[in-house]
Amino acid sequence: MSIAPIALTCGEPAGVGLELAEKAWSALKEELSFVWIGDPRHLPNNVPHQTVENVEQARDVMQHALPVLPVEFEGNAQAGQPDPRNAAGVVKAISRAIDLATEGKASAVCTAPINKKVLKDGTEFPWPGHTEFLADYSGAKRSVMMLASDQLRVVPTTIHIALDDVRKQLTEDLLRETILITHNDLRSKFGILNPRIAIAGLNPHAGEGGTMGTEEIDMIIPVVQELIKDGLDLTGPMSADTMFHAKARARYDAAICMYHDQALIPIKTLDFDNGVNVTLGLPFIRTSPDHGTAFDIAGKNIANPQSTIQALRLAAQMAQAVQPKT
Questions:
Q1: Which residues, in sequence order, are CB contacts of 231 under 8 Å at separation 6+?
Q2: Are the CB atoms for 90 and 13 separated by under 8 Å?
Q3: What is the pTM for the complete model shown?
Q4: Taking a C-beta distance cutoff of 8 angstroms, is the pair 38, 10 a contact?
Q5: What is the mean pLDDT of residues 248-264?
Q6: CA-to-CA distance for 247 and 263, rounded, in angstroms?
Q7: DSSP assignment string, 30-71
């Protein structure tokens, strides 16, 4: 590919990210190039790797070794045993990747899983998670989470909150902003000129004319109609129980859902191993595997690399899509 290498962060050194980096390199070394950002001391002994001074050198290294842009960590890496002394190094690796992407030296950022408690225990990390840090550090006003695979793209409007709080946080402004960010990034980062977006209802049967709740009438429909008038290709609100079968999915490029499980249950049922987390609204491309640090299996070399492989592939595809056409 003609794109710059992707910046892959190390994530939590006590988790599965280290072994997944090696497995992803083995699977993709003939297909694309990326540079791993972390402490080379942490890599398993059997991983062929070579340190580089800059991202561009990864192209020449990729086929025979994992390219490593070194970041010095304070502690060692022990599988399944997180060390708070490494928290600052984890944050530094992420910051380095963001800088490289915003400077155009890396075509995208792919992040291995972190552990938020370890970061809070080991350093001042006031953000709720990975995504919020990425947005704050890069100056993005708001970010939106998308889960994507070859079969489906879904965006939850509200994310990690109790179901009882969904209606309190689900506002016209939040829904409008989520739809617009999704529409804009489907155009600018996925290369979809006229995105078709399906909007789920909040209630069963999308409220069924107000007999099962009025949120669709009071809030969702006015936002959808307003944005249709502005030229967006929207459908909905749709009943969530009928919008994820194969024929329905063929009619849209992404689905906007109202809460976490409404979005994530369909994609994890359809394509559990290949789901990729994509952060929309950032000034650079960011993907990540859709799983955590998995301390319980770290170091056993049994972690499934498929989501990491797909996250790197999708990052490359998105970077290719935003390349100027000649």
A1: none
A2: yes
A3: 0.91
A4: yes
A5: 96
A6: 18
A7: TT--EEEEE-GGGS-TT--EEE-SSGGGHHHHTTTSEEEEE-
